[in-house]
Amino acid sequence: MTRYITTIVFALFISLASALFADEEIQVVNFTDGTEIDYPVALLRGRLYDETATEIVCTNLSSQKASRQIHGDAWKGQFKVLAELVPGENELELTSGDYKTTLKLNYKKNSNPLVVRMIYMTDSTGDTTFQTPYKNDPQNFKGKLDTALKLMQCFTAETMNDAGLGRKTFNLELDENGDVIVHVFKGKKTAEEYGSVSDEDWFDMISDEISPRFPGHSGRNLVIPAYTRFDSKTKKAKCHTALGGGWQALFGSGCMYTWPDSLDGVVKAFTDSTPVDGKHYHDDSAYRSVYWAAAATTIGAALHELGHTFDLPHSNEPRDIMTRGIDQLNRFFVMREAPSKENDDWLENIDDEAANWSPISAAALNVNRFFQDEPPMDDEGEVNIQLTDDNQTVKLEAENGIAFFGVASGEDRQLYVAPLPGQPLPKQMSFSLDELKDSCEEFKGDLELHVIDRYGKTEGIHIKIRE
Description:
Layout: H1 2-21, E1 26-28, E2 35-37, E3 41-48, E4 55-60, E5 69-75, E6 78-84, E7 88-96, E8 99-107, E9 115-122, H2 141-162, E10 171-172, E11 182-186, H3 191-195, H4 199-210, E12 219-225, E13 229-231, E14 236-238, E15 242-245, E16 248-251, H5 266-269, H6 291-309, H7 330-333, H8 359-366, E17 383-387, E18 393-398, E19 402-409, E20 412-417, E21 428-432, H9 433-439, E22 446-453, E23 458-464
Parallel strand pairs: 2-8, 9-10, 9-11, 9-12, 12-16
Antiparallel strand pairs: 1-3, 3-6, 4-5, 4-7, 5-6, 7-8, 13-14, 15-16, 17-18, 18-21, 19-20, 19-22, 22-23
């Protein structure tokens, strides 16, 4: 009798537990119902009751776009899946096997007039084709550039949020359909002429040609040249570089054949272990020599160069986008890392080693004018860094308050001051050179100092110190 009662009680417990878990068979952990964001592509992360599932599908029931349904990645009871939103309320349906749940997210367009522009540059022939090993490549450069830039924006928002700063990110130029506006810009010279000069001179040539039409005061330009070509004889890519600064970022299209051309193709692109034919095509994959690695490194590198246009220098944090974190961009969007030349098998537990914006880079972006939700306020007010007459003290002044102060010596970069949200911002500060030198893990004879005020106005100074 006791055994019978125990069996009934156990059965009731299992039934009740199943009923209680029914709403959590698919559980999103980084968004709550009704969350509002101001960028169009969200990455949903969560848990699955079915630990054997390898896929999850997100369908935006509120959208009629081609991206209304996106396939995500799942592994051992966890998942990541993208969702492209339309303005207003979005009802998202998540499905994995027999399980289903819904989530509502609100998308309110960012009103910051400062935007990142995507410019696809041809040479004087106007030829838009990029180099590719595929015989019948559809040459969907607009889809690839739209997808890449939305991934950069989404990555930035989510990693800034992970850093405790909220989902801050840069604004994009979008058309009425919510697609990134890809400006096709015809250069004045041939590919041979562009490739005959140094990378720095080529960068300046492009800047001189583009700036009259796309001025830097209203945006940052990410320029991808269509005419990058790998030379199988010299084993070098012509018209390929990675440069960024001021209002322009320039990155070659040599590996664009590995980029996804839709959001639904992201998981496939970041898990594609097809070997790169390095004898005939550009292999910018950090020596891993497979398609997914080339896609991760090159999209990450384009974001790195864009980071320079946001006044970010290199850092010494290994996973920072401003260093070699570019190679791990794939880990942010998928659950496992696919095999490569370096690893014969799949790698698990990759989240802790995924790309990010390091604390110092995130703190600088947090007060950058491009990262504000509303139009930037008037930036009147001086920002100054001065070395005193005795060359022993650095004085900082910002009429609108010091929101960020970073110190660097070589690649060693330290966040010295970043007041917490809500704290009053000091208008004046001073530090001895010895303090600043000691703040660097490895002082290399000089200091780079960088100050940002509350409205994103920046000032920097280089101090050469003899030891």
